[in-house]
Write a structure and sequence with these properties.
The chain is an alpha/beta fold. It folds into 3 domains: 3-206, Cation efflux protein transmembrane domain (Alpha-lytic protease prodomain-like), CATH 1.20.1510.10; 213-288, Cation efflux protein, cytoplasmic domain (Alpha-Beta Plaits), CATH 3.30.70.1350; 295-399, Nucleotidyltransferase, domain 5 (2-Layer Sandwich). Helix content is 56%, strand content 15%. It contains 12 helices and 8 strands. The strands form 2 sheets. Strands 6-5-4-7-8 form a 5-stranded mixed beta sheet, with helices on both faces. Helix 1 runs antiparallel to helix 2, helix 4 runs antiparallel to helix 6 (158-173) and helix 8 runs antiparallel to helix 9 (258-275). It binds zinc ion. The site of zinc ion (ZN) has 4 residues, from helix 2. Zinc ion binds at residues 46, 50, 154, 158.
């Protein structure tokens, strides 16, 4: 489901629920006032807070649909959590009211008018809100909306409170004192519980709580299933209104071309969004895995083993020394001929492509032209500046970190 669709669905669900709950709340309060049932009145007041709540939920979805602005580049999704936070206090306030009324009723018995009407509205309310709550919970889960799901669950729980209301009304009708007041008090506890949970949830969301262990696990499994990833770290997910934002660092083989690395990142983004539709954005940082055993290329003009002198030129060097390093020591040395040393046109490009196939990590050279420089850098080869001397001297300086990295071509022409 698209973001806009999710928000639209949340909005329309909240508005439908608001209207339905408001209708029942009004009916309950009116009949409660006529009949004098404190249990029904408590329930009616409770339903009025539910109406206000779903109205605010609706408002939250309305605000969330506002496009991100320059000032709020991440959008307004958290509006929903802020609204839920304030509504929680209203719910707790209603809880106090109900508790107060019910407490008084324990000590003063009052017979009911219109007892059948009170029972009928309480019963129909119980059944209707139960199914409405179930429907709302289902949609809430579908669109991963915290407020819609919470409200749906709460409406479903009305079946218990409404049964208590029915029991209370019947006991008063039969002339049994205190029961209705006790029922009212019990119902107020339920209202407190709803309010406190709602405060907790909205604060956690505002504090960027991770969505859930399941969602985190899904993302982890997905990352592990993608080829060419050598590992990942720093996976962070956070909830923002009905959406999830995330980021991760992935490690890829150093020699992988930039284009390929980009494809991998795209693949991760596509797959995670398919698995977790609520994911709004997933930022992927790519880092090359650390080179533990680098392969180094050095242009030379003679094969004099470690005593070969470093060539003044790169593209037209006679030979290339390929040095492998293990545990910070030279572990192997071989020489390859430069097949393009006599090439008159675009020798730099041919040589660089030829060398890139050897998958070197590092090139140490005195000079490098622009085409060679960019070709090698695109293949993630790091380039260092060589000083006069033999391979042995240059490698030692490299291992002692005394060579400078070349960040731009040293010549204008190849
Ligand atoms: Zn309720």
């Amino acid at each position: 489901m698209q973001r806009e669709e999710i928000l639209k669905k949340g909005e329309s669900t909240a508005s439908k629920v608001s209207i339905a709950v408001f209708f029942f709340a009004l009916a309950k309060v009116i009949i409660a006032l006529i009949s004098g049932s404190v249990a029904l009145l408590s329930d009616g007041v409770h339903s009025l807070t539910d109406t206000i709540e779903s109205f605010f939920v609706w408002l939250g979805f309305k605000i969330s649909q506002k496009k991100p602005t320059e000032k709020f580049p991440y959008g307004f999704y958290k509006a929903e959590n802020i609204v839920a936070f304030f509504v929680s206090f209203l719910i707790i306030l209603a809880g106090f009211e109900i508790a107060r009324e019910s407490f008084q009723r324990i000590f003063s018995f009052q017979p009911l008018n219109l007892a059948y009407g009170a029972i009928a509205i309480a019963l129909s309310d119980a059944v209707f809100l139960f199914f409405l709550g179930r429907y709302e919970t289902k949609i809430g889960k579908e669109i991963n909306s915290q407020s819609i799901t919470a409200q749906g669950k709460e409406l479903t729980s009305h079946i218990f409170s409404s049964s208590l209301v029915v029991g209370g009304i019947i006991s008063t009708y039969l002339g049994i004192p205190k029961i209705e007041g006790i029922v009212g008090l019990l119902l107020s506890l339920l209202v407190f519980k709803i309010g406190l949970e709602s405060i907790k949830d909205s604060i956690l969301s505002l504090m960027d709580i991770s969505p859930s262990k399941e969602i985190e696990k899904k993302v982890k499994n997905l990352l592990l299933s993608i080829p060419n990833i050598q590992g990942f770290s720093g996976l962070k997910l956070r909830r923002s209104g009905p959406f999830i934002f995330g980021e991760v660092n992935i490690k890829i083989e150093k020699s992988l071309a930039v284009q390929k690395a980009h494809e991998i990142a795209d693949e991760i983004e596509k797959k995670t969004k398919e698995t977790i539709p609520q994911l709004d954005s997933f930022i992927i940082h790519i880092e090359p895995s650390e080179i533990k055993e680098p392969t180094i290329i050095i242009p030379v003009n003679e094969n004099n083993q470690l005593n070969s002198l470093v060539s003044k030129q790169f593209g037209r060097a006679y030979l290339f020394a390929i040095v492998k390093i293990k545990e910070n020591k030279l572990s192997s040395l071989e020489f390859i001929e430069n097949p393009y040393k006599e090439k008159s046109v675009r020798a730099g490009l041919s040589v660089s492509k030829f060398l890139a196939e050897k998958k070197p990590d590092i090139l140490i050279t005195k000079e490098i032209g622009p085409i060679s420089f960019h070709t090698l850098r695109d293949n993630l080869v790091q380039i260092y500046k060589a000083e006069d001397g033999t391979i042995k001297e240059v490698i030692n300086k490299f291992l002692e970190n005394k060579l400078k990295k070349i960040e731009q071509p040293t010549r204008i022409k190849e």
